[in-house]
Amino acid sequence: MPKRTKELLAEAESEGGPDPVGTPTLRHQVYERLERMIAQGQLRPGNRLPETDLARLLGVSRGPIREALQLLERDGWVETRARHGAIVRRRSPREIQELYETRGVLEAHAARLAARHASEADRGRLAALMAESETVLAAGDGKALIAANAAVHNCFSDICGNRTLAGMVHALGRRVRWYSMTPRTPERAPAALAEHRTIVRAILDRDEARAAEAMARHTANDLAAYLGWLRDNPDSAGSDSEA
Questions:
Q1: pLDDT of 195 higher than 70
Q2: How far from 10 is each of 1, 17, 19, 175, 231, CA to CA, in Å?
Q3: CATH of 18-88 given 1.10.10.10, 1.10.287.1080, 3.40.1000.70, 3.40.50.150
Q4: Whole-model pTM?
Q5: Strands 85-88 and 78-81
Q6: Fold of the domain built from segment(s) 93-232
């Protein structure tokens, strides 16, 4: 007979018990910090990740670092190589293309749903984030521009009315964020912002088809811009050269 819930809970308690609801374990806190450092470009593809150095940097023991690195490897951020240990994982151009294409499909649907479901408060929030992006672009602050760009993209999915889709878009967005942080960012920024304006206008007009089409075109242009930069800077890219 299947075990009852009470028996399963008793077994879990005897093994140390589950983590309290809402309380992230130390290894997950370390995981989130390292993931953020990779996504923000502080740790770049190919960088080594010595446990001792990371433990000293984050002020924890090596145990949570080791566990976090295992989780990061599971999720594709890190790989372990003989004689090198854990390193930030490089991706091939083909894998990068797959990530962008998948993101494009999900975000296009999120934009369609945002045009359909966005409340007045949602629409005001989106317009405010777009205005902030315009201000940041005019100021020429590259780091702030990347953050503003991410905030607009997150908003598209946050207001779509589908939390499952929003979670998937956020997770995939973190995966491709590093590839938007190349030296090409200042060159791509004005065109990207104009594309954002088109998407936002379609959402505010509640034009679902135009919002989805504009988002699909935007992500395709992002991919083309990155691959073009990659071809021109093969030694500077954060990916392996094989396709």
A1: yes
A2: 17, 8, 14, 38, 57
A3: 1.10.10.10
A4: 0.76
A5: antiparallel
A6: Four Helix Bundle (Hemerythrin (Met), subunit A) (1.20.120)
